[in-house]
Amino acid sequence: MKLASRVGQVTPSLTLAIDSKAKAMKAEGIDVCSFSAGEPDFDTPQHVKDAAKLALDQGKTRYGPAAGEPKLRDAIAKKLQNDNHLNYQRENIIVTNGGKHSLFNLMLALIEPGDEVIIPAPFWLSYPEMVKIAGGTPVIVNTTQASGYKITPDQLRQTITPQTKLFVLNSPSNPTGMVYSPDEIRALAEVVIESDILVVSDEIYEKILYDGAEHLSIGAVSEEAFKRTIISNGFAKAYSMTGWRVGYLAGPLELIKATITIQSHATSNVCTFAQYGAIAALENSQDFVQQMLDAFIGRRKFILERISTIPNLSCPKPDGAFYVFIDISKTGMTSIDFCKELLEKQNVAAVPGVAFGADQCIRLSYATDMTTIETGLDRLDKFVRSL
Ligand code: GLU
User: What is the span of the domain harbouring residue 31?
Assistant: First the structure.
């Protein structure tokens, strides 16, 4: 069979592959400590589940508008106004099958052969692959631990060409956990405006911030920045709703209309009763988010202290999200070999940094329980000392 050539350019998602492997090992009774996928271990809040159950009982089991339930689009517009100072109307929003799908819709609607998309590395592994599926060219800009894994305005400016269409900004970042300060966001916005490119701001981790770190949405910097901004977000991380598959994209009317057209032929609407759960997540108490954050604060503290006692490993202090991105270069191993041996010898699942454009690192997600973290880090310690 001759498959489409686009398939040959794309690699499968390693985060999902490792997560499935770790879950399968657990199902076989193997005692695995999994730090693989970024999936909060908390149950979805009860009021969200109740709202979805009620929606089921009320017969919300039919097709809905491809763009999403009007009530949810309104609730998202309100959230973007209140939390992020972004002035969107219902028409500027499409509800998608998770944050990942919102970005995929965006790439299909915007990117075509010849277009360049600037992606700072380390990056979330699906960005370049989505650009390639759309026929565009990902342009990777390397950042270093010394620069806090942040792209500088000069780096961005120097990378922009007449072919540049889009800049992918992800703060708080997956996989590094770094957060651009409001001043850094303003400086990047200046480059976006002067070069007249578009920026997609992936804000899926916006609620998970530590030590007073602040999240500023680049679209809130000025009217000129707003015109060039597209926001991607979702419910998975903030409300522990990974399996629900509800996300959204907000942006200029023409672009959102195009994504709705694409979605109307691809998936149609997001599961109708799941959307009612999402409405409840936005419209009710946000205490759950704080409770989850409190747990992450304790885990982050423990994990950073513990890693500092393991020889040959180092990692910057993350200001957001729930990942540590550990430099393993002193072990002399590639990230794939490191993670493979760690899983085989110690039953610890981590994601190789090469998937995120940084082969000298591995990623651990601490969106998992303390027992797993304690045991897993003891095993990681043992593994590194055995090398
Ligand atoms: N975004 C999460 C992660 O990086 C979930 C898995 C995925 O979609 O890549 O682990």
Answer: 5-44+287-385
Which tokens belong to 140? 């990777």
Q: What is the DSSP string of 371-385?
A: HHHHHHHHHHHHHHH
Q: Which atom of ligand 1 is nearest to the CA of 36?
A: 10
The alpha carbon dihedral of 159, 137, 94, 180 has a sign of negative
What number does the ligand 1 atom closest to the CA of 16 have? 6
Q: Does 38 contact ligand 1 (Cβ within 6 A)? A: yes
Does residue 174 have its Cβ closer than 6 Å to ligand 1?
A: yes
Pairwise CA distance, residues 255 & 195, whole Å? 19
Phi-psi label, residue 336: left if phi above 0, alpha if psi -120 to 50, beta otherwise: alpha
8 Å CB contact between 93 and 275: no
Same-domain status, 52 and 123: yes
Q: Is the CB of 100 under 6 A from ligand 1?
A: yes
Continuous segment of H or E residues that includes residue 158: helix 153-159
How far is the CA of 380 from the CAs of 26, 152, 313, in angstroms? 18, 34, 10
Among 265, 283, 301, where does a domain finish? Answer: 283
Which H/E stretch holds residue 198? Answer: strand 198-202
- Are 314 and 215 part of one and the same domain? no
Residue 243: both structure tokens together: 């399996």
Across the 387 residues of the chain, what is the mean pLDDT of every consecutive 10-residue run? 91 89 91 93 97 98 98 98 98 98 98 98 97 97 94 98 98 98 98 98 98 98 98 97 98 98 98 98 95 96 97 95 97 95 95 97 96 97 97
Q: How many residues does the chain have?
A: 387
Question: Is the distance from the beta carbon of residue 44 to the nearest atom of ligand 1 less than 6 Å?
Answer: no
Distance (angstroms) between ligand 1 centre and the Cα of 234 equals 13
In ligand 1, which atom is closest to the CA atom of 242? 5
216 class by beta-carbon count within 10 Å (0-12 exposed, 13-18 middle, 19+ buried): buried
- 58 and 159 co-located in one domain: yes
For 153, the token pair is 């305005």
pTM: 0.96
CATH number for the domain harbouring residue 359: 3.90.1150.10
